[in-house]
Design brief:
single chain, mainly alpha, globular, 219 residues
Length: 219
């Protein structure tokens, strides 16, 4: 059950953080004939899975360095808040007319925009390579195949973005606690902050997201 919950978290993170990737994928392949579009998307998905796995394995190794998890946790927390306020409507890319060029665009886009995904998955999995591979292998093809659908979902169902941001913030708190240096500092004289930090950060992000949605409705 614990592994299933972890996989669901990874899937949610990928779906929420891949809104911009989804737009790029849809635009890069839109001028191809139907059959070639399908081939470009799936070859791009396969390449994205391999690329994301390599980058995540590298992130897992780097997270073992002192203070790296603390820095990564702060970066992840910043991404969680940024996700609530960013607008992906202006993401643009030139539509390609050949399979190979479309695949190149998909791979480059995934590499450039995958820092948040890689960091979050590496932190969530906490070194469990099998979970990393399974989570990425399941989520990336779903993101690529359903690129247009996902973009619409994220636009019409803000709760998905809010959920993803909360998971990111909670994971950021766990990273700050797992780092041997910052974890010892946060423990301090008592264990109250140490025990509640991930939940407090997630609650702060949820509150910020609700305020942002209320403001958007009154604009």
């Amino acid at each position: 059950m614990e592994h299933i919950i972890l996989l669901l978290k990874i899937l949610t993170i990928n779906l929420v953080l891949s809104g911009d990737n989804a737009v790029v994928i849809a635009m890069a392949s839109k001028n191809l004939p139907a059959r070639q579009r399908s081939q470009a998307i799936w070859w791009g998905a396969l390449g994205a899975v391999v690329l994301r796995c390599v980058l995540t394995f590298a992130a897992v190794l780097l997270l073992g360095i002192p203070f790296i998890q603390a820095v990564g946790g702060l970066l992840l927390l910043w991404i969680a808040f940024k996700l609530l306020y960013e607008n992906n409507d202006n993401v643009g890319v030139r539509a390609e007319t050949t399979i190979w060029k479309a695949i190149q665009v998909i791979l480059v886009a995934d590499f450039v925009m995958s820092l948040d995904n890689v960091l979050a998955i590496a932190a969530l999995a906490n070194g469990d390579i099998a979970i990393i591979v399974i989570g990425i292998a399941i989520s990336i093809p779903i993101v690529v195949w359903g690129s247009n659908v996902i973009a619409v979902w994220l636009h019409h169902f803000p709760i998905l973005v809010l959920l993803g941001s909360a998971i990111l913030a909670f994971t950021a708190g766990e990273m700050l606690l797992r780092d041997p240096r910052s974890g010892a500092w946060l423990a301090g004289p008592g264990e109250i902050l140490h025990s509640w930090l991930p939940g407090l950060l997630a609650a702060a992000v949820v509150l910020a997201g609700i305020v942002q949605q209320l403001r958007a409705r009154h604009i």
